Amino acid sequence: MKKVGNHNSNSRKMFLGLAMMLTFSFSSFAQDAAPAAATEAAPAAATAGGDPVKGKALFNSNCAACHKLDAKSTGPALRGVAEKHDMAWIYKWVHNSSEVIKSGDAAAVKLFEENNKSVMTPFPQLSEADIDNIIAYTSEPKAEPAAAAGGAATPPGANVEGTGSNNNVILGVLALVLVVLVVMLFMVNNVLRKVAKANGIEVAPKAECTPIWKAFVKNQFLVLVSSIFLLLASGYFVYGFLMQVGVDQDYQPIQPIHYSHKIHAGDNEINCKYCHSAARVSKNAGIPSLNVCMNCHKNISEVAETTATAEYSKAFYDAQIQKLYDAVGWDKTTQSYTGKQQPVKWVRIHNLPDFVYFNHSQHVTVAGIECQTCHGPVETYEIQKQFAPLTMGWCVNCHRKTEVKMEGNGYYTKIHEELSKKYGVDKLTEAQMGGLECGKCHY
Amino acid sequence: MSSNKKYWKSVEELENGSIVEALRNNEFVEEIPADEFLGNADAMSSSSTSRRDFLKYVGFSTAAATLAACEGPVNKSIPYVLQPEQIIPGVADYYATSVFDGFDFANLLVKTREGRPIKIDNNTISGAKFAANARIHASILSLYDNMRLKESKVEGKNSDWSVVNSKIKSSIADAKAKGGQVVFLTNTLASPSTEKLIADFIGANPNAKHVIYDAVSSSEALDAFEAVYGERALVDYDFAKASLIVSVGADFLGDWQGGGYDAGYAQGRIPKNGKMSRHFQLEANMTLSGAAADKRLPMSVANQKQALVHIYNVVTGSAVAVNLAPEFKAEVTKAAQQLKAAGSKGLLVSGIQDKNAQLLVLAINQVLASEAFTTVGVREIRKGSDAKVTQLINDMKAGSVHTLIMSGVNPAYTLADSSSFVEGLKKVKTSVALSLKEDETASIATIAAPVPHYLEAWGDLVLTKGTYSLTQPTIRPLFKTKQFQDVLMSINGLTGTYYDYLKAFSSSFIAGSTWNKVLHDGVFVGAPAALSGGAADYTAAATALAKSKAANGLELVLYTKTGMGDGQQANNPWLQEFPDPITRVSWDNYVTVANADAKTLGLSNEIVANGGLNGSYATITTADGVKLENVPVIVQPGQAVGTVGLALGYGRKAALKEEMQVGLNAYALYKGFNDVQSVELVKADGEHEFACVQGQKTLMGRGDIIKETSLEIFNTKDSAIWNETPKVSLNHKEVEATTVDLWESFDRSVGHHFNLSIDLNACTGCGACVIACHAENNVPVVGKSEVRRSRDMHWLRIDRYYSSEETFEGDNERKEGIAGLSSSLSTFNEMEKASDNPQVAFQPVMCQHCNHAPCETVCPVAATSHGRQGQNHMAYNRCVGTRYCANNCPYKVRRFNWFLYNKNSEFDYHMNDDLGRMVLNPDVNVRSRGVMEKCSMCIQMTQATILNAKREGREVVDGEFQTACSAACSSGAMIFGDVNDKASKVAKLAADERSYHLLEHVGTKPNVVYHVKVRNT
Fold first, then answer.
1. Residue of B nearest to A344 (CA)
2. CB contact A437 to B (< 8 Å)
3. Closest CA to B1006 of B860, B899, B872
4. Residues in domain 4Fe-4S ferredoxin-type (chain B) (predicted)?
5. pLDDT, tens digit, for every residue of B975-999?
6. Least CB-CB distance to A278: which of B76, B90, B867?
7. Are residues B654 and B789 in the same domain?
8. Radius of gyration of chain B (CA)
9. pLDDT by residue (tens digit) across B219-278?
């Protein structure tokens, strides 16, 4: 019976696999549907008076730094702004808002007061036609992508869960079928035996032979060889186990804020050293302080629809940005700092032992090594992990191979001349520079 | 052939066989109470834990612990929410500041990391005159003292500043109403803004007054100077300009008149063009100045007074009758005549606490027209008046003082007659102690209010007239503290912050510069004028001084130790563990007794079996009957016969960790603010266990350890005579040791090659390097009992050697003269004893970074290895603690971590609390138990310098490479740099004909170079 059970569980796994495949295919369908619906909605909302497509481009290059369509940012939300003010007023305002305020225009003053008295940059370079285009863009009705997609309205997260419960049903049914099959097999077998017995057919019993394990024990050579093999194999695994103690390659802890390097460094191509600026001058690369985040996130309070993935919905990402706001004490609605701060306790991923001295600036600024050399393709990491093993062997191997970047660095002029004469080479490796000496990293 | 002999193992077995028999049969002398717990069947059965369960638990917990050990801990990394613009994590910031704590003063550069100060460096900008001494270097640790007063206390109960301020204000109003006195009792402030605030208050409140109290008084010198020049100040001597220095009882390399003279003195001590200064020292205690002197005359203070008058006679041609002991006459006359001959290049200083003596100092220097003696830019660091303090205590006892506001003073501890102060304090209506700690005074004052450490505070200082230094905070106040100045502003009714007040106030002092510039530089130098000198009746002073009587009995000369000073920082473990440069004893004060006196009094020192130093106890009784019992005794070579020395600053109890409550309070004997007292010394029972780091006293004629010669030989003879390279036998021929080698040499011509040059002529033994090394390298403190076991962890020690003959030269000759075994035994035995007036030499010894290092070859795990840049590396994580390296090191500079010294309550020093650990240098590893450590030649600093140059794409400039010790050395004795840079200072020093290596015959080829000590005898 036990054997049967095992078979059953194997087949269960197979079915599980099948079910998973189905799940993923379902969910990817659901994802495709949403953006399609959004693009469909856009042209339908075009308005007269300007070209909303051109307007969008202008909006993104000129206005988006301070304005959003549907939410207050540094400036007010701009959707439907044409309904609030007449076009002549808007032209004047855009060309030079402070003049309008100075003239005592009630609406302008009110607007100025409402927005923390922040002065809007004058845009004299925008023609009235340009402004028309922008207004046309801002007058488009808000796209309701989720609603437009109709049946696939449920958010992706929920979708996955839904298919999950479907899988269970399918799995159950399949298991049942399998059990029925097994039972049937037994029954057929039994019936056949009975038939054979009734017909007087003797089922020939198998010839008695030495069990394989007895034969094995008798063959001493085989025992010796296999025990040596076993010892070696276990030695290999024990060694392997011990060597990974304290090595945290692929360490991928859950962070208090789900920060995606893929979105920042990958999709948006932000330079690593924009945020990790200390890497240029300090031993620490530095986790950016939250005021650095706010350089951009003051204006980016939510992710674009297209940023959301099957795994992480827009709502999920927006919640992460909200976590940042909570930590730094930024009130989105009033666009001001509340002063209530709460430092973010990130989980440290790269933990070098205390007895190693490592300096980022040495590698980043002096040697000009790409961050990715040691940190891996960070721009593809949704969740940051430790790419390199950070073992001494790993460091040393790189020091052996890597040629020191000496050109144009006045420090190296003399030493390069002397060392290249000594070693008879033009390019010097870090090891030849003395980079393998214990005291260069351990003090 | 069986024997009938009975063998017995002990006398007891022979005499009383039955006991031994019984003991042999019973393994345990007392019966094991097994029945008590095994016999109790009920208890056993009721226990739910069976033996099997127990074993299961053991097995499970072992397995769990093993598994858990494989799992790394989860570390948190918490960035700033709003990062200050100036702070980049991982990059050090430096702030220029200045300190004056009433005793020590300096112009500093404070290194901060991530917003916390971790190291004190000297401000080397021009105009910043005063370098940090050992105590200032250690003061960074006092900032993180967990025993600091953290909250205001009113009548012993925790309170806050608003209550304190209102109480002070109402008390002042009450005093005004009742006509009582309001008195500010402060240390010398040297802060014009603070003085202005006090003066303003006194101007508005005529019933108020300001009393300045220096715990260690320089009152007589101030009185004398005031009498002649009309200003209460001290001369800022320029020792560099003096070619002949006569010091009568002035330890100017120590704390005499504030100290800080070593840099100038050392300049003149390095022979240049065949010339160096000559220094006569007449003193009672063996001091740093006496150790450096070319000729030292040990004499009692009574004799010093006569000698001073005698010198006055010779220099000025007067004929005041003197009573100088005949044995000193010739030498003192010689010194006086040379002083007179030196003329304007001569200088006389004196530490005799007598106004007449101090007048004679002025007279002699005036007659000499000494260049070193100048009234331009006089020192304003001592202002105290003994008479006014005495008056105040009388007023307090009379009940006429209503409100007493104290800042920077601890009279309940530092006054000889502290009981009358305490008694007087009870009659004071409101007493306020503004203090860093809840010390002896703060704990009995009505209000104890916490003030910030100088590294947390604003301030201004006029250390010498014409200069203006600023003190700026380098960290936010750690506790709920307020500055004395804040309190003054509050009672003056001023609003705003002291910072704003200071900024506005400073403008009159920094004409021609700006606040930002002065704050950046730390100091502003104006153009001070010389004081117009009057004159006094010097002959009368000389006559009076010559008539002063000698003390009955022994003469006790009180002094301050290089480590402890006036005792403000008694809770600083670095200073407690700092070995005194002369006696090499840490964690104690003691009475120093001359050998001859020790013999007559039956006092002795001995090295006991475990290598520790033991000493007798003595009871000191002053003429007034004040007793100090069980004072440990050190027999001090060079102590003048008939005098004994005792250091102030020890024996504190309040606000001190238990480990730091060492020594005895010598202030109790500081009667009448006089450092000379007549006492009686009686041997007491018992033996004191010292923590002395150097058992051996003399050099035993090993002239190749400290090479010393006289200026005459140095000038006239070839360097092979006075700086002989040791010879060894090679193929039965005598060759120079430096030419013989077991190993092949590595090529060291490429890149940097670091050398440290130490000039024994310039080294005064001040110990600033020792503490700087502690701070830079996270050197642990091990405590008294461990130091006694020779387990001190100092990476850098300053060896002190006495000569056993009158001079080291005599030692060498005596050793050369040994013939035969018996003569060798007896002679060496005698040479172990130091002379009664020995020559003294200091030698800083750290890892010599041998190019052919004996330690490297014996390490079984290659944990110590050599770098191309000349440094001997120590990989702590590789070390398994065999200690072979330490055994094979000829210099004994390796230190072993016998215990875990951090986060270990057995070693309850700064590394055991979170606050104290803030001082740790994040660039240097904190070592763990079981590993060897040693001087790394500050590889973290040299590497950082190289990296900076690489980042900026330039070569390293000479002088950029520094170690903690070389940066701390203000006397120029330690110079560090790259010898492959042929133009560098250190390359020239290493090639100098005075240079030699320690134990050169061993062939280790060290990278530390010493320079032959030349004495101008």
1. B78
2. yes
3. B872
4. 754-784, 838-869, 870-899
5. 999 999 999 999 999 999 999 999 9
6. B90
7. no
8. 31
9. 899 999 999 998 899 999 999 999 999 999 999 999 999 888 999 999 999 998 889 999
**CATH number (domain holding residue A75):** 1.10.760.10
Which of A281, A328, A437 has the CB atom closest to B868's CB atom?
A437
Give the whole-number percent of chain B exceeding pLDDT 70: 96
Q: Does A420 contact B at CB distance below 8 Å?
A: no
Residue B38: the pLDDT is 66
- Secondary structure E strands in B906-989: 932-933, 974-978
pLDDT tens per residue, range B812-836 = 888 888 888 888 888 888 888 888 8
A343 chain-B contacts, CB cut-off 8 A = 78-81
CB burial of residue A431 (10 Å; 0-12, 13-18, 19+):
middle
Query: Parallel, antiparallel, or unpaired: how do β-strands B932-933 and B895-896 relate?
Result: antiparallel
Q: Where are the beta strands (DSSP E) in B66-169?
A: 76-77, 92-100, 105-113, 116-122, 152-154, 157-159
Measure B943 CA to nearest chain A CA, in Å.
8
Residue B499: which CATH number?
3.40.50.740
The conformational region for residue B644 under phi > 0 = left, psi -120 to 50 = alpha, else beta, is beta
Q: Over B552-575, what HEC string results?
A: CCEEEEEEEECCCECCCCCCCHHH
A58 domain residue, yes or no: yes
Q: Does B810 lie in the same domain as B894?
A: yes
Is residue A155 predicted with pLDDT exceeding 60?
no
Q: Are residues B276 and B195 in the same domain?
A: no
Among candidates B77, B863, B867 on the partner chain, residue whose Cβ is nearest the Cβ of A434: B867
Phi/psi at B898 (nearest 5 deg)? -70, -25
Kindly report the length of chain A.
443
Q: According to the model, what pLDDT value does residue A191 have?
A: 92
**What is the distance in angstroms between the Cα of B911 and the nearest Cα belonging to chain A?**
16
- Rounded Cα–Cα distance for residues A84 and A246 (Å): 63
Beta bridge partners of B1008: B756
Q: Do B924 and A288 touch (CB under 8 A)?
A: no
Q: Which amino acid is at A43?
A: P
The minimal CB distance from B81 to the residues A289, A422, A442 is found for A289
| Closest CA relative to residue B991, chosen from B713, B714, B723, B721 | B723
> In this complex, how many residue pairs, one in chain A and one in chain B, have their CB atoms less than 8 Å apart?
160
Of A287, A410, A422, the CB nearest to B954: A410
pLDDT tens figures, B598-645: 999 999 999 998 889 999 999 999 988 899 999 999 999 999 999 999
One domain, residues A25 and A162: yes
Under the banding of pLDDT at 50, 70 and 90, the label for residue B1014 is very high
Q: Do B79 and A290 touch (CB under 8 A)?
A: yes
Q: What is the pLDDT of residues B544-588, one digit of tens each?
A: 998 888 778 899 999 999 999 999 999 999 999 999 999 999 999
> What pLDDT, on the 0 to 100 scale, is given for residue A40?
42
| Confidence class for position B780, pLDDT limits 50, 70, 90 | very high
A172 within domain boundaries = yes
By residue range, what is the domain housing residue B160?
152-217+384-456+479-506
Name the minimum distance, in Å, from the CA of B84 to any CA of chain A: 10
Specify the DSSP element, H or E, that contains B715: helix B711-716
Q: Express each pLDDT in A276-329 by its tens digit.
A: 999 999 999 889 999 999 999 988 888 888 888 888 999 999 999 999 999 999
Contact B875 A351 (CB under 8 A): no
Residues B919 and B824 both lie in one domain: yes
B603 and B502 within one domain? no
Query: Could you tell me if residue A234 is inside a domain?
Result: yes
Q: How confident is the model at residue A117 (pLDDT cuts 50, 70, 90)?
A: confident
Under the banding of pLDDT at 50, 70 and 90, the label for residue A106 is confident
